[in-house]
Structures are given as structure tokens and as C-alpha cells.
Amino acid sequence: MAKVKIGISGNIKEMPADSGWIYDAVPRGLSDCVKEAGGLPIVIPVSDPALAKDYVEMIDKLILSGGQNVDPSFYGEEKSIDSDDYHLERDEFELALIREALKQHKPIFAVCRGMQLVNVALGGTLNQAVTKHWQSYEDLTSHSLEVKPDSTVSRFFKDGNSVNSYHRQSVKDLAPGLEVTARDPRDGTIEAVEGKDGHAIIGFQWHPEFLIGHCEQHRSFFQYLVNQF
């Protein structure tokens, strides 16, 4: 039986810093999660948006990985913060991936920045700066979840389950094609979304790939993602 092919959007990283050597980078945890669940991970490098159709045609499902802030021009705002943590080329390409995945009816799982970008692609906006949502790297988790009953997310996570937090932006106005299925009870930050109107979309604001080795619930979620979603 052929393995389910999961495309994972890649970031662009210069390693070592200031070396001029550019790599296509994906968190190893995402590809490991897919492999452990029986899927075949395929890294999709940042490319010309015209190639998005071809990339999406060759996969069964799409994972949008985390990374930089989303350029506010895509949701009709000017930059209001002092930050250079943006990558316009990546935004343009991944927005094309999202459009193609929706057009080709390929499920999308979006992580952190990925969830924010899906919200923007479907007509939502972002808070350009949030505080108290970037935890120490030494800590495994930093806050709990408040989960909507009878959602897909509630099949794996319950009220009080702990997750991590590594984001400096967040969803502000929710896109009409999405519904909120988990929040941070501390301040109401949207932590998970799911697609409406037949769109197979799940987004997590946290990074499940950093918790897979410590949490059976996350391993079960990736089994669902690869084999049922």
C-alpha cells in the first residue's frame, strides 16, 4: 500500500549565520511525526508561486510549518512594529500553496505562523505584536488549553491540557471560513482553528512537533492527520 505523501513547507535559513550558505529548513519533529504515523514527508522549498500547483498535485496533504511573521500588507495593514522578522517570498509562495490545496481539496494542517497565514489567506487579520507568548526554550509547555466540545481538536485535547508557546503575533479577526476550537484561557488567544464549509483545515498556534516525544495525545493526533484527516 502506497504511503500517504505529506508535503511540509520549508523555511529558508542561513547556516552558519553570515556565511551566505542558504538551506531549506524544516523542523525535524514534523517529518519525524509524519514518518512515525506511517506517512512519507516531502519538504517543499520556498519557490516561485507558479510552482505551487505542481507541488500540491504531488502530495496528499499539506503541513504549513512555523517561522517568520506574516507581512501585514497581505491583510491590508502597514507594519506597526520594529521588526525585520519577515520573508515576503515565503509568504507569497505559501499563500499560493494554500490556494492550490483548497482548490485541489487537499487537507491542510497549519502550525503557528502557518495557522496565522491560513487565517490571512481566508480573509482574516493578525495582531502584529503580542506579549507573554514566548516561553523559555528550557520549558516544555507554558499554558493550558480551553477546548471547544465536539470539535476535531477535542478528540485529542481536553480543557487543561498543556501546550507550548513560541509566537509574537496571533490571530485577531478570524477569517469567515474558520472556527475557533481552542483558546488560551489566560487571555483568550486563539490556539486552534478548524475549517468550515467543507474545508479540511486544522491549525495549531502551538508547536506540536516539539511535544511529540513527551505526549501521547500529540502522537495520536499525527496518526489521525496522516491516516484519517
From TrEMBL:
Matches recorded under InterPro entries: Class_I_gatase-like (IPR029062), Peptidase_C26 (IPR011697), PuuD-like (IPR044668)
A single MF term (Gene Ontology): hydrolase activity
Top-level taxon of origin: Bacteria
Keywords: Hydrolase
Keyword Zinc recorded: no
Name of the protein in question: Gamma-glutamyl-gamma-aminobutyrate hydrolase family protein
